[in-house]
Amino acid sequence: MEHIKAIKADNHEIFSRVYEQYHHQIYGFILQRTQSDYIAEEVTQLTFIKLWKQRNNLSEQLHVNVQLFGMARQVMIDLLRKEATRFKYEGESAATPFTDSLIDTIESKDLLRLMEQDIQNMPRTRRLVFELSRKRGLTHKEISQQLSISTKTVEQHIGKALLQLKQHLYSIML
């Protein structure tokens, strides 16, 4: 998180280190999803440009890699949407449904993967309460009986879990 502070303070050396550390990972992340060298190169470059331009809006509570991969994902989706629009106006409409479904698939899979990671990183009881509620569909009363905790405690765990997920998703969308 000290990288964020340094980048926010216009430290070019730290920014260069972050670039060296993550540009291959960002490239691979995008290449895996799009199977396009061109898009992977473009998105990688645009991601680091975005990181620098939006450095003052970075969260000091999140690691640089979390914010960087979130930016890369958003840049990729934006680029794919621009390509779909370009295809429409150039009369290549056959490519548009493919691009749209690719965007939807990427967004869904990434979102589910990120949410599952967030759930796994929750404290044990919070995670258990959340999974019993959202994955198994148990009521608050059923959960409280099963775990021998009050329904109020169940509500608090679910509220904290949802808040944690919302905060992380919000930081990704920046």
UniProtKB/TrEMBL annotation:
The UniProt record lists the keyword Transcription regulation: yes
Domain RNA polymerase sigma factor 70 region 4 type: 119-165
Superkingdom of origin: Bacteria
Family statement: Belongs to the sigma-70 factor family. ECF subfamily.
Keywords for this protein: Sigma factor, Transcription, Transcription regulation
Single GO term (MF): DNA binding
GO terms of biological process kind: DNA-templated transcription initiation
Signal peptide interval: none
Protein name in UniProt: Sigma-70 family RNA polymerase sigma factor
Keyword Translocase among record annotations: no
Membrane spanning stretches: none
Species in which this protein is naturally found: Sphingobacterium olei
Domain RNA polymerase sigma-70 region: 19-84
